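Tutorial, part two.
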Amino acid sequence: MAGTEAPKGNARRRGKPIEVWVTDAEKAGISKLAVQTGLSRSAYLRNVGLNCPVRSVVDLGAVSDLAKVNGDLGRVAGLLKLWLADMRDVGASSRDVAAMMRDFRTLQSQITAIMSMIVYQKASV
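Running the prediction step on this input gives:
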């Protein structure tokens, strides 16, 4: 029980506790979901029971990772463009460079769309 709960911040007394009978497997599942949201088990159940939004910390971490990849992709595209500009007429046509830059921008747009979808999906849960 102690190792599966999310760390507790400032605990506050809400009045009366509500007893809910669950199996060991159900309790473990609830504890796992609470940890994923960064909430205590009690806060998680209260939010779910009151139909309040519950966001997963795991998914927001994935969005953060995607944002870093998106930034790296932009830097690589910029360096590639700079390198190709310096090496003009050595191997790549300006049309090929322009097409590659469009591909980079398309990838960045797709990453941004995925990040937005994850964030908005979590906000509506």
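The CA atoms of residues 66 and 101 lie 19 Å apart. In part three we will examine how such features are distributed along the chain.
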